[in-house]
Design a protein that fits this description.
With about 575 residues, the chain is α+β, with helices and mostly antiparallel strands. Helix content is about 50%, strand content about 15%. Strands 1, 2, 5, 6, 7, 9, 10 and 13 form an 8-stranded antiparallel β-sheet that branches. A 5-stranded antiparallel β-sheet has the order 3-4-8-12-11.
Length: about 575
């Protein structure tokens, strides 16, 4: 059971309601008096409560029945009352709003009961209202009521069991949110998993009512869909809250789903609801930060050494080496830009440019891995006849246009469709809201699947050739090793971004921490793996390194000899100039 929103539970008696005989003994009038308890010298609570009592019966001046449209126009009465309150009178303001919300709900039910229509719907400048009459609920059916852009989904059996008269109403208030804003938020009334701050309402305030007692648990939960007033930021969290008389609370409500434009809530009671937005504090893990910066710095060094080796080591220069070189360059630039620009969120234009460049460079890295797989496949296909014409054509005609053209097309189309999704409030990367992240993850998944298929096919071909070709066993063996190395590299690069895809808001600790550490460590291994496997463990490269070191040693020794000889000559030339009498006598 929940605490009564206004102190006294009420049952909306919608049968035989008339606009006559409203006096001080009216339950609505007495309840209003108890709630307002105005203690100003000019105590006008009697007049206010008399007006509220009339409104609760859907009655206007002259005891005329009010329509739903006229009930909506009663919002002016509330604004006049709240505007007269002195600054800082939060309790009085909360009391007036509470009485008004309850009164409008009851008035809407009364007005709906006078009309025999199944559904009624009105939209005005102050509120939008939809009512529905439910009878003979035999089928398990859920009704959707819509007021402006907000919706309420309620099961028909819930209305039949809980309501008075089988009538359910849904109301959306256009401007009541600023009156009961963030100043009525108390963290003591909010149940959250982490510390939150910077609260503000980010939706219309809505009310759902069936004439049943307020804030009592229902047999089935009711779903509400709220449209956000402002686009939800990446570091913000949506909270489904209801008005409990003096502040907002989220007891009995939970968020089912939320994106940047809307939030779906599920609540086990009826009341007045809204979406409360709060900022989550960005926690910086010093260990993870150290791993990222130190590890990526080491990876940058390895990628630089690998690129220089592929470029200058002539014995290993071929099409495969050219592919490794382009991959190393793309990863080097991507990691360098990541280290220096991922947190530069201001100005927004610069952040968007950095996000676009990172998108392009990482896509280019995967594209070069795809070309590496195609090259291996062509090499194995022509291995039996030692015909490398197709691989040469592959390098000359397709390698560079495909390697740098495919990611450029993807980024250009993505920027044209959703340029605002480049750069967020916290990082210069693609927005995780909506489906825009698939402009990166989609091509990555496709390339990983294609490459994996190519590599497995290549291994099957090599297995057959290994048993049939005796003269070419060494070449086949080397190609198979190259394929296995490429598979391992594909796993490292693909696995890292597979993990990175799960670093989103919905993933909580400790899973998020494990994924973050795994993502950072595997990213570090990319540059180290390329340099270790394709350079340090390559025999030709090792021989070339030895030759370079020997030349450097000879040059160093020659320079030292020249320096020593020059110093000796200087001493020999200068020695006679020292007078003999300057030496001590023995």
């Amino acid at each position: 059971m929940y605490k009564n929103q206004i102190g006294t539970e009420y049952q909306a008696e919608i049968n035989h309601v008339t606009c006559s005989n409203i006096d001080n003994s009216d339950p609505a009038f007495q309840n209003c008096q108890n709630q307002l308890n105005l203690k100003s010298p000019q105590d006008n609570s009697r007049q206010i409560c008399a007006r509220f009592a009339k409104l609760s019966r859907s009655c206007g001046e002259g005891n005329t029945a009010l329509s739903l449209q006229e009930i909506g126009d009663s919002y002016r009465f509330l604004t006049n009352l709240t505007s007269q309150l002195p600054t800082g009178k939060h309790e009085e303001k909360a009391g007036l709003v509470t009485i008004y919300l309850q009164t409008v709900e009851k008035a809407v039910l009364v007005a709906a009961s006078r009309n025999r229509k199944i559904t009624q719907k009105v939209e005005g400048p102050f509120m939008a209202i939809e009512t529905r009459r439910v009878k003979n609920c035999r089928l398990k059916k859920t009704f959707r009521l819509k007021a402006e852009k907000q919706t309420m989904d309620i099961h028909c059996t819930t209305v039949e069991k809980e309501s008075s008269g089988g009538i359910v109403a849904f109301i959306s208030y256009a401007s009541i949110g600023p009156i009961i804003d963030k100043s009525f938020v108390s963290e003591e009334n909010l149940t959250t998993k982490e510390k939150l701050h910077n609260f503000y309402l980010n939706s219309k305030v809505v009310s759902g009512t069936m004439g049943s007692r307020k804030n009592t648990s229902l047999s089935m939960s009711i779903n509400f869909t709220f449209q956000h007033e402002k686009v939800k930021r990446e570091n913000e969290q949506s909270i489904c809250v209801y008005w409990q008389g003096s502040s907002w609370s989220n007891e009995g409500c939970q968020v089912i789903s939320s994106d940047e434009n809307q939030t779906l809530c599920s609540c086990n009671h009826l009341s007045s609801f809204a979406i409360l937005m709060a900022s989550t504090k960005l926690k910086v893990d010093p260990v993870l930060t150290m791993i990222t910066y130190v590890g990526l710095s080491l990876s940058l060094l390895c990628l630089l050494l690998a690129a220089l080796t592929f470029l200058l080591c002539r014995p290993i220069q071929n099409t495969s080496t050219s592919l490794h070189l382009q991959l190393s360059i793309c990863l080097f630039l991507a990691h360098l830009l990541f280290l220096t620009g991922i947190d530069r969120t201001e100005p927004k234009v610069l952040c968007s440019i950095i996000a676009g460049l990172l998108h392009y460079l990482y896509l280019a890295s995967f594209t070069w891995m795809l070309l590496e797989g195609l090259h291996l496949f062509l090499t194995v296909k022509n291995l039996k006849v030692a015909n490398y014409i197709s691989t040469r054509k592959f390098k000359r005609r397709f390698m560079y246009p495909l390697g740098y053209g495919i990611p450029a097309v993807i980024v250009a189309v993505s920027a044209g469709v959703g340029h605002s999704n480049y750069g967020t409030q916290t990082h210069c990367w693609l927005s995780f809201h909506g489906k825009f992240i698939w402009s990166f993850m989609g091509p990555v998944f496709v390339i990983v699947l294609i490459n994996l298929s190519i590599y497995l096919t290549t291994l099957c071909i090599l297995k057959g050739q290994l048993s049939s070709l005796n003269k070419e066993v060494s070449r086949v063996h080397n190609t198979r090793m190259l394929t296995l190395k490429a598979i391992a590299h594909l796993f490292i690069l693909g696995c890292s971004w597979g993990l990175g895809f799960f670093l989103v808001e919905g993933v909580l600790d400790p899973i998020r921490s494990v994924v973050a550490y795994s993502f950072s460590i595997i990213n570090v291994l990319q540059g180290i793996y390329i340099y270790l496997v394709y350079c340090l463990l390559n025999h030709k490269v090792q021989e070339e390194y030895r030759t370079w070191f020997k030349k450097m040693r000879k040059i160093t020794e020659t320079d030292n000899d020249d320096l020593f000889g020059s110093a000796t000559q200087t001493k020999m030339v200068g020695f006679p100039l020292v007078p003999f009498h300057a030496f001590p006598h023995v």
